[in-house]
Amino acid sequence: MHSETVIISVGGSLIVPDQIDTDFLSSLKTLVATEIAAGKHFIIITGGGKTARRYQDAASGVTNLSSEDVDWIGIHATRLNGHLLRTIFRDIAHPVMITNPDDVLDIPKDVPLIIASGYRPGSSTDLRAIQIAERRGATKVVNLSNIDYVYTADPRTNPDAQKIESISWADFRKLIPSEWDPGLSSPFDPVAAREAERLGLEVAVINGGNLQELQKYLEGNPFVGTVIK
């Protein structure tokens, strides 16, 4: 019987909010190592965050970029962040960071931690997290970002936005755009949302600035965040 595997999508805004956040990375390593010692397995996939946006903005300031160009810059930013995490976790992680979700099929099930990153243009790392979950037989995906909850509208611009603690995929998808765009700001990629609904996966949106809430979720306790299923 294999240990439960949880997929964690770590937003680039947590890894590099402006400068690289070593306090966050240290806390994440401690938590993941503790949970692995308790029997859980993880696959962590990294976003691009501010690193991606800085390179995208620089390139677009010099020339006109296609959506594919913008996407590729973002993908390589996720790979840089992924290599950072693989290095930090080198004592417990699979030695090679994966980019293609199919690569998890070749890694033994007893490996406790795998680091992954972006693959090809056309979607965010949210979709790759869902594809990895399907291939690894995982039922839970955690989306670590810089928000406490999913809201009915953008709380930064709409004072009437209401927090959501639990929501179905059908209702969640009504709140977000229907198509993916490299510059999209959404709690979860619409392409990934469709796949997660099809597969019957549970996604928890949790603020990575409060890793104790992630620990509560992993241990089956009440937590601050949103469950989509």
Pick out its properties.
single chain, 229 residues, alpha/beta, Carbamate kinase, seven-stranded mixed sheet, two-stranded antiparallel ribbon, 9 strands
Give a quick rundown of the structure.
This protein has 229 residues and is of the alpha/beta class. It contains eight helices and nine strands. α3 (49-60) runs antiparallel to α4 (67-88), α5 packs parallel to α7 (190-199) and α6 (169-175) packs antiparallel against α7 (190-199).
Per-chain topology:
Elements: E1 5-10, H1 12-15, H2 22-37, E2 41-46, H3 49-60, H4 67-88, E3 113-116, H5 125-136, E4 140-145, E5 150-151, E6 163-164, E7 166-167, H6 169-175, H7 190-199, E8 202-207, H8 211-218, E9 226-228
Parallel strand pairs: 1-2, 1-4, 2-3, 4-8, 7-9
Antiparallel strand pairs: 5-6, 8-9
Helix pairs in contact: 3-4, 5-7, 6-7
Characterise the protein shown here.
- The chain has 229 residues and is of the alpha/beta class.
- It has one domain (5-228): Acetylglutamate kinase-like (Carbamate kinase), CATH 3.40.1160.
- 40% of the residues lie in helices and 16% in strands.
- It contains 8 helices and 9 strands.
- It has helices spanning 12-15, 22-37, 49-60, 67-88, 125-136, 169-175, 190-199, 211-218, and strands spanning 5-10, 41-46, 113-116, 140-145, 150-151, 163-164, 166-167, 202-207, 226-228.
- The strands form 2 sheets. The chain has a 7-stranded mixed beta sheet, sandwiched between helices. Strands 5-6 form a two-stranded antiparallel sheet.
- α3 packs antiparallel against α4, α5 packs parallel to α7 (190-199) and α6 (169-175) packs antiparallel against α7 (190-199).
- The longest helix is centred in the middle third of the chain and has 22 residues, at 67-88.
